[in-house]
Fold these 2 entries.
Entry 1:
Amino acid sequence: MNFDLSEEQQLLERTVRDFARNEVQPLAKEIDETGQFPLETFRKAAALGLTGVAFPESEGGAGFDHVSTAIMIEEISRVCASTGVILSVQNSLCCEPLHRFGTDAQKKKFLQPFLRGEKIGCYALTEPQAGSDARSIETRAVRKGDRYIVNGAKAWITNGGVADAAIVYVKTDPAAAEKGISALIVERAKPGVPGFRVGKEEKKLGIHATACVELWFDDCEVPVENRIGEEGQGYRIALSTLDGGRVGIAAQATGIAQGAFDLALAYAQQRRAFGHTISDFQAIQFMLADMATEIEAARCLVRQAAWEQDSGARFSREASIAKLFASELATRATHKAMQIHGASGYSREFPVERMYRDARVTEIYEGTSQIQRLVIAASVLKSS
């Protein structure tokens, strides 16, 4: 792997960093406090091509690669984790399965508007009683002629409160376990699509502005032409999509850690105690050194996983390693950053408090740390 970024990737990194500082950062505190989805910011990101980074220009994408997507998500998350995960979901969980498994008609109707940011998507797999064990989903779809009748509920759906369409995983054959799961594109509730409604918004510790909601389906009619792939392929589509999603969350976690480190470093160099700036004290220096080392390691793991994804090889192990390490690092790094800030870090007047709250979920969504360890262990044992 070549660790040097191409000229195009360097330009993207600078462009996104400027956008993050000028457009995203000024609103980060406000949207954390209000929970308001940053729709205007999303539209501005779309105008820069950030809603479809690694997809062909011919389809409406920006024509970069998945390493570039990781760079983008890290830079946005460095100042606002909510905006970072919103864009991660749009790129990886919504656009990727349509790009890989969708029909030409589905790509024209759904993928292209998603890539251009004209429409917002969400990924509806998790249910109140089915998280890590995706095979246990209970949302049911029964085919009747040229339509499916969908009944059930989804939970913790990022972007769900504002999404124009959802990729919904359903049981089409309950007796077939994971081979009975299918993927459907369900358009937002409107007169022609009865039985689909947005439920309550989840009240969370962090990432408050992600329109994370329940979705309810009550005799919701979905055209068969909106099925992604064949019946029974949904579980495979879901797992392959989650690999890319995990790289995105690893990039988000790395960005949160980097942002917290930036603030801690600046604070340590200006805060004085006992006649010195606190950066003169070895205890503070060691915390900064640990953070800098682990952030660099996380960034390398994320970009390696994204590079493997670009190569076309299977990257489940690399994605899980990057996600596990980066997410647990984000918790450690924001903890240290708060400690360096002292009492100020515990105040909502300082961004590090928000970062501390935002970091925690990266160890949970897109597969918990325990699930990542299972994936990694299975790969290690298989290859031994």
Entry 2:
Amino acid sequence: MAENPTSPNGSEWTRQSSRVLTSLGVLAILFTATLVARMLWEETSLTIREGPQMLGFSLAHGPGAILFLAPVTLVLWLLIAVVVLAVCLWRRRSLSKRYWSTLAVAILVLGTLSIPPEFWQWLMIGTFSASPHASDLMISDAAEGDVRTVRGYLEHGIPLTAKNYEGSTAAFAAAAGGSLPMIEMLAAKGADLNATNLYGDSPLEAASQNKHASVVAFLKAHGALQIRGTPEQREAASQSIVRKEIAREDRLR
């Protein structure tokens, strides 16, 4: 007959169950930690070397794609572990230090995985600013509205006039992304609000096309012009950009 967990022998049942659950948790943590290490490498070393990343792109196109199941596995384990914890606390059963440690490490690993890539750029701004792709990185952050990180790039010498592979400046990216705080900061630092990209479009044109009313109003109030590229400019820019993107994806694979 199976032991009743509420009987005097329940403590032994609890210890055995916690050992099994802890062992499974350690495996799930190692599985997820492998993905965390890979993503941190992409978000730091690979991004510094190659520029803005479609995170997980190269991993998803190889046998390592199985790692994307790791967080799901760990979350499921964590849910079960929390339920067991609640039951043990309710029944006043003690759990081992190893169980508590495993629970804490699981939360830490999942928390690390959830840290946005921009955090590492801000934390390591000096190293990222020295990257040959620093301009691309700053402009990508401008599009995301990450004022703190973009200000860090500027303070480390990346010029306001820097352009990415599409010929866009940080001001253009901020306007296209609809970030009013970003465009205000860049304008205050003297950014050219009429600098066009390879398509021949100005920041005001990008903001208008994307229906960012507050940014449109700000740009107009600061004398920005709505400039739209010609069909010839657009065609030439599209061909050039597509070639660059294909070459970059092939390199990453």
